[in-house]
Amino acid sequence: MAEGKTLTLNMGPHHPATHGVLRIVLELDGEVIVKATPHVGQLHRGIEKIAEGMNFQQVIPLTDRLDYTAASLNNLGYCLAVEKLLGIEVPKRAQYIRVIMGELARIMGHHLWLGSHALDIGAMTVVFYTFRDREMIMNINEEASGYRLTPSYLRVGGLAKDITPDFIKFVRDFVKWFPTAIDGYHTLLTDNIIWRKRTMGVGKVSAEDAVNFGFTGPSLRGSGVPYDLRKVRPYSSYDDFDFQVPVGEVGDVYDRYLVRMEEFKQSINIIDQAIENLPEGPVNVDNPWVANPDLGAVMEDISALIRRFKIQCEGPHAPEGEVYASVEGSKGELGFYLVGDGSEHPYRMKIRSPCYILTSALPKMIVGHMIADVIAIIGSIDIVLGEIDR
Amino acid sequence: MVEFLSILIIKTLVVFAVSMLIVAYSTWIERKVLGHVQLRHGPTRVGFHGLLQPIADGIKGFFKEEVVPDNADKPVFILAPIISIAAALSLLVIIPFGDSVTIMGHKITLYLTDLDIGILYVLGISTIGSYGVMLGGWSSGNKYGVLGGLRASAQMISYELSMALAVISVVMVSGTLSLVGIVEQQAGLWNIVKQPLAFFIFIVCGLAELNRTPFDMPEAEAELACGYNVEYSSMKFALFFMAEYAHMFVFSAMVTTLFLGGWHGPLLPGPVWFFIKTFALIFFCVWERSTFPRYRYDEVMELGWKVLLPAGLLNILLTGLWMVIFNI
Question: How far apart are CA A236 and CA A326, in angstroms?
Answer without folding.
Answer: 11
